[in-house]
Amino acid sequence: MKMKIVACIGATIAVTILSFSTPDRLFAQDSRGPIPLVETHEVMELFFEHEFETLKAFMQKEPTKRSEWKGIFNGANELAEAHNLLFFRDDEEYMETDEWITLTVAGRDSTLAVATSVKARDFSVIKSKYSAMVKSCNACHEEFQGDEPEVIEE
Ligand code: HEC
After folding, report:
1. The pTM is what?
2. Which structural domain, as residue segments, surrounds residue 5?
3. Could you tell me if 16 and 81 lie in one domain?
4. What confidence score (pLDDT) does residue 32 get?
5. For residue 141, with 0-12 CB atoms within 10 Å meaning exposed, 13-18 middle and 19 or more buried, which class applies?
6. What spacing in Å lies between the alpha carbon of 6 and ligand 1's midpoint?
7. 62 and 101 belong to one structural domain
8. Confidence (pLDDT) at 75
9. Closest to 116 in 3D by CA, of 153, 54, 72
10. pLDDT level of residue 153 (50, 70, 90 thresholds)
């Protein structure tokens, strides 16, 4: 009897550990392409929030050094690339709508425009592109997050 209980507890622990270490969805779908591994709020926290804070810090004053211009360029490129992760989210039904794709494309384009504008080194132009980018973050939040959307500040 005791052995049975021990075996049963052991099996439960093994199943629990396995279910944490191997996400089912990785095997349930064709993994030879992009698949969502974490939920969208985690994508936002891990990639968008972190990269946005880095970019925002560089945008607070006109760069004087090459490394500061590069900081804006790299930050915007990272954030633009991160938008690609939004094309294949599936934790909410609205992520399969045309509206979601349209706002993702708009966000990606406006973020890339920040990076592209760095070349001319005109800070007022870069700032206006950056404002448009922040608007695109908020446009998606307002569309899909109900009454209390996440507000991104410049
Ligand atoms: C195409 C839609 C879309 C775009 C574009 C978008 N977001 Fe989001 N964001 C979301 C959604 C949806 C959530 C809420 C996810 C949830 O709670 O399930 C979210 C949540 C967040 C959060 C809160 C994360 C948390 O802690 O839960 C942050 C921060 C954030 N977004 C930053 C940004 C920034 C910065 C940009 C622009 C550079 C951006 N987002 C662009 C859809 C978008």
Report:
1. 0.85
2. 1-33
3. no
4. 81
5. middle
6. 45
7. yes
8. 97
9. 72
10. very high
Best residue among 96, 140, 144, 154 to mutate for probing ligand 1's pocket (most ligand atoms within 8 Å of CB) is 140
Same domain, 56 and 73: yes
Residues 43/45/48/51 CA torsion (nearest 10 deg): -130
119-132 residue pLDDT tens? 999 999 999 999 99
Q: 132 CA distance to ligand 1 centroid (A)?
A: 16
| pLDDT classification of 18: cutoffs 50, 70, 90 | very low
Q: What is the CATH number of the domain that holds 116?
A: 1.20.120
- Asked if 43 and 85 touch (Cβ cutoff 8 Å), the reply is yes
Task: Find the residues whose C-beta lies inside 6 A of ligand 1.
Answer: 40-41, 44-45, 48-49, 52, 79, 86, 100, 103-104, 107, 111, 133, 136-137, 140-141, 144-145, 150, 152
pLDDT at 10 over 70: no
